[in-house]
Amino acid sequence: MAYALYLAITVPLTVLVARTLSRHGKTFLEDVFQDEQALAHSVNQLLVVGFYLVSLGFVTLFLTSDDIVLDARDVFEMLSVKVGTVALVLGVMHVGNVLVFNGIRRKHLNHATARPVPVPPPHPGYPAPAPHPAP
After folding, report:
1. Which CA distances in Å does 8 have to 14, 59, 119?
2. Is residue 94 within 8 Å of residue 88, measured between CB atoms?
3. CB pairs under 8 A, 24+ apart, for 56-60?
4. Are 51 and 93 in contact (CB under 8 A)?
5. Predicted confidence (pLDDT) per residue in 74-131, tens digit
6. DSSP letters spanning 9-43
């Protein structure tokens, strides 16, 4: 009974967090990769799949318990520890995803704003300098 309650709480919680990350992450990535919508969709899907694998793996591994459950109070105490731990792990994973999104955004913005150094016009009578290769 306690296992069924644990799964009935943690699996929907995981799905809710993953859908929220997917929906808002997709909007964020589409803004970052304005000219590459397919890339934004792919990155979003990969992050969501990774989130599901890690979080549902944790939920499954955390399913077992050595606690002796004698009454309803023991069930609620065990569930509170387990569900609370899962919620904390999901929160940490959410922060991790936000940091990944921010890193992708920062890298993309830095790349987009990097401009080559303008070459001054040549002096009359001198040949134009050869262009330098990009770093």
Report:
1. 11, 11, 65
2. no
3. 56/11, 56/14, 58/86, 58/89, 59/7, 59/10, 59/11, 59/14, 59/86
4. yes
5. 888 888 988 899 889 888 888 887 888 788 778 877 776 666 666 666 667 776 666 6
6. HHHHHHHHHHHHHHHHHHHHHHHHTTT-HHHHHHH
